[in-house]
Amino acid sequence: MTLIWILAFVVAITIHEASHAYMADRLGDPTARLMGRLSLNPLVHYDPIGTTLLLVLSIMRSLGAPVIPFGWAKPVEIDQYNLKNPRRDSAIISFAGPASNLILALIFAITARFVPIFAIIAVPFVILNVSLAIFNLIPIHPLDGGKILVGILPKQYAYQAESFLSRFGTIILIFLILPSFGGSSLVSSIISPAINLFLKILLPNLI
Fold first, then answer.
1. How confident is the model at residue 67 (pLDDT cuts 50, 70, 90)?
2. pLDDT tens for residues 34-48?
3. How far is CA 118 from CA 43, 70, 165, in A?
């Protein structure tokens, strides 16, 4: 079972980052493609901290620990000078990663409903992809949600938000990830309700 979780972890981060690279290329920026990030090779997307965190939490979840897997892969580099509408296009590129994870989760969930024997494989894939998508939608840098927030805010507020998140986003993220006095992290408390809602919809009889 642990091997299935590891495979789900590899697929989730690979699809997530390759989707960023694909969307950037479609919107006119070849930077990620030229750097080899438009690839289904998981090694080119590995981040020493974020990916390791996701892997460890995934293995803990597979062993029965009540944890929510979350983490990130190596960010895809973008040259905004190649984009027609840098703020909007950056938001679209950022959203492509979480969106691809939710689509993949939906595909596995539908397959499990029609092929019940597939459920043992589908459940880890759905949980990991939903968890990765929801976590990355938190609106702080360096997560995808930070760029999405800047992209959808009115221009006069967007620059203020980008300045603040660029300076303090990483500090806030570290604070959210660190375990609190109760033993769990604040980020788990924040994203758990959304993750559980998606899982109840996608896997109503399987979790």
1. confident
2. 999 999 999 899 888
3. 27, 24, 42
Quote the pTM value.
Answer: 0.88
Identify whether the C-beta of residue 10 lies closer than 8 Å to the C-beta of residue 18: no
Name the DSSP letter for residue 80. G
Residues 52-64 pLDDT 10s: 988 888 888 888 8
AA letter at 158: A
207, part of any domain: no
Residue 14 lies in a domain: yes
Strands in 67-179 per DSSP E: none
Of 24, 51, 49, the residue nearest 35 (C-alpha): 24
Range of the domain at 50: 2-202
Q: How many helices (H) and strands (E) does the chain have?
A: 8, 0
Q: How far apart are CA 132 and CA 99, in angstroms?
A: 10
Among 4, 18, 11, 13, CA closest to 48: 13
Judge whether 149 and 162 are in contact, CB under 8 Å. Answer: no
Give residue 122's pLDDT band: very low, low, confident or very high (50, 70, 90). very high
Q: What tokens appear for 54 in the block?
A: 């996701």
The type of residue at 36 is G
**Unique residue bearing structure tokens 């507020």:** 157
Report how far Cα 11 is from the mean position of its chain's Cα atoms. Answer: 12
Is 46 inside a domain boundary? yes
Q: Give the number of domains in the chain.
A: 1
Task: Give residue 104's identity as a one-letter amino acid code.
Answer: L
